[in-house]
Each structure stands twice: as C-alpha cells, then as structure tokens.
Amino acid sequence: MRTTRKVSVWPVGLVGGRRYERPLVENGKVVGWYTGWRADRPFAIDMAGFAVSLQVILSNPKAVFKRRGSQPGMQESDFLKQITTVEELEPKASNCTKVLISLMLFDLECLSVLRVWLSKIFPSSLGSRVAHTDREG
C-alpha cells in the first residue's frame, strides 16, 4: 500500500464458497476479475482489496463513498469510477497472485471471546473498542 501512486489492488481471502477474489492481471495490468458475484461490475472488488493515495482523495474532493444510494454490491465501483479507471489500477501482491488479507465472519460468541483476548493483549481502552458490533448488548 505504501507504494500506491493512485489506486492499488490486491486479492482478498473470503469465507464461504469462494476462498478468495482477485483482480486478473496480464503484463502488469488488470484485465478482469475472479469473483463469485457480479463479475460485470466495473470494479468487481471488495473494499478490503484496494487502497487510494491521499493525493487522489485530496484532488477529487467531490468523490464520495456512498453508504446509501448505491445498488447492493456497487459501492466500491461507484466510488472507484469517480477517481480512476481499470487501466490505471496498480496490481500489488505479486501481480495479485498472493492473498495477503482475509475477511472473517464472527458470530457474537466469537466476538466476545475476541474482545476478552484483545483486552489481555491491549490493556488500554483499545481492547474494548476492537470487534464491537451494534448487535451486541
């Protein structure tokens, strides 16, 4: 991420049917997407699978990541279309062949265990903030 000039991309590990999703890269350029859902999206990528340089954010003040108003699953594409093109994407993680980040699903019991574990490692207030969900009591 540190070497991102504009927008960089990489694979993301998933839970469920697909073990990962990733940009397809040929000759150092993104040419498509390996995804289990809506491969027709302009940027068929999870929000954990890209980074945007601060300079791009500052030079595009009207670009927004919409929490509402995008079709389901289109938030990433709607945002990235405002600031880049697929041709400009910078593949990372050895041309998107290595999964270096993974999404995980936790049920509430797992979150409680994780919170206790983190509070032992980080005795400050950080442990109490990590892994908080609105569904917890």
TrEMBL record:
Q: What is its main location?
A: Golgi
Please name the top-level EC class of this enzyme.
transferase
Pinpoint the site Interaction with galactose moiety of substrate glycoprotein: 21
Q: Name one GO cellular component term.
A: Golgi membrane
One molecular function GO term is: galactosylgalactosylxylosylprotein 3-beta-glucuronosyltransferase activity
Read off the Pfam families from this record.
Glyco_transf_43
Q: Which cofactor does it need?
A: Mn(2+)
PANTHER family tied to this protein: GALACTOSYLGALACTOSYLXYLOSYLPROTEIN 3-BETA-GLUCURONOSYLTRANSFERASE 2 (PTHR10896:SF8), GALACTOSYLGALACTOSYLXYLOSYLPROTEIN 3-BETA-GLUCURONOSYLTRANSFERASE BETA-1,3-GLUCURONYLTRANSFERASE (PTHR10896)
* Protein name per UniProt: Galactosylgalactosylxylosylprotein 3-beta-glucuronosyltransferase
Native source organism of the sequence:
Castor canadensis (American beaver)
Q: Which gene encodes it?
A: B3gat2
